[in-house]
Design goal:
Blueprint: E1 5-10, H1 14-25, E2 30-36, H2 44-47, E3 55-56, H3 62-65, E4 68-71, H4 78-86, E5 91-94, H5 105-113, E6 116-118, H6 127-135, E7 138-147, H7 149-152, H8 156-160, E8 172-178, H9 179-185, H10 191-199, E9 206-212, E10 219-227, E11 231-238, H11 248-261
Parallel strand pairs: 1-2, 1-4, 2-3, 4-5, 5-6, 7-9
Antiparallel strand pairs: 7-10, 8-9, 10-11
Length: 269
């Protein structure tokens, strides 16, 4: 593909594998050249069936091989993936957004070297509206998240506070606090809250409620924003992917983000 931007993917779970397949089928101006995963052998079967098989490499090699690296890995690996990319003036697409709060210097590293960190909309609706409102003055942002029990089980905050949700028979509020606190206590669940905070008033002013609901089969997010330009609320019910902590729409959001990069018509802020 002449003149195409080279793309690499770190992590081949439900999101990474779907994005890899979409790139192989064709996204204008992009070419999948490399992938990395903790257990690459379990993915070789389907990867070898792609139209053009990408190179299987360790994460340290991705930044050198690609112009765009998509992070679909555990949050603890974000720094190892993103820092080499942005320090080379390249683009990192980050899904483990919560990790950016613990590695805020990556933003300065990208700025100083001409790189860019891109955060797709993911499982959240309305980031464009929040971003626009933030150009003016936002007075308050609140997000209420309701998840099936299986989508919250094992979260560090629940373990630390000895909150048992396995046997609940009614909705239970398990957390109320800032987006920063939510990201720390629920690292596999609340990337959406961090994305919202980065689009708006920051992690310490974005307030979050988290509910475990045994009656739910979908992840439900409601956002309430009060600004000088508008007052608005938005709600979305996400169908979980193979990973109950991640919505199916997250992978589709990454694909939509990639399609925008070279599209002749771009919709949205």
């Amino acid at each position: 593909m002449k003149g195409a931007s080279r793309v690499a993917i770190a992590g081949l779970g439900p999101i990474g594998s779907r994005v890899a397949t979409a790139l192989d089928r064709g996204i204008e101006g992009l070419e999948l050249v490399a992938v990395s995963a903790a257990s690459i052998d379990k993915h070789r079967g389907w990867l070898n069936k792609l139209g053009k098989v990408p190179a299987f490499v360790p994460i340290e090699a991705l930044a050198e091989m690609a112009d765009i690296v998509i992070e679909c890995a555990p949050s603890r690996l974000v720094r190892a993936i993103v820092a080499p990319v942005v320090s080379r003036g390249k683009t990192a697409v980050v899904l483990s957004v919560g990790a950016l709060l613990e590695n805020e210097d990556l933003i300065a590293l990208a700025r100083d070297n001409g790189g860019q960190i891109v955060v797709p909309t993911g499982a959240l609706i309305g980031l464009d509206a929040v971003t626009a409102a933030a150009v003016g003055t936002i007075r308050s942002v609140r997000m209420i998240t309701r998840k099936p029990v299986g989508g919250l089980a094992g979260a560090p905050y629940l373990l630390e506070h000895k909150i048992d949700i396995e046997g609940i028979t009614a909705p239970l509020k398990v957390f109320e606090g800032t987006a920063r606190q939510a990201a720390k206590g629920f690292p596999a669940n609340l990337n959406v809250a961090v994305a919202l905070s980065l689009a708006g008033v920051g992690a310490d002013r974005t307030m979050v409620e988290i509910w475990a609901d045994p009656a739910l089969t979908r992840n439900v997010h409601r956002i309430e924003v009060e600004a000088d330009s508008a007052r608005f609320s938005m709600a979305i019910e996400n169908v979980p992917s193979e990973n109950p902590r991640t919505g199916l729409i997250t992978a589709l959001s990454v694909i939509a983000c990639l399609r925008k990069l070279h599209a002749p018509l771009r919709i949205g802020t």
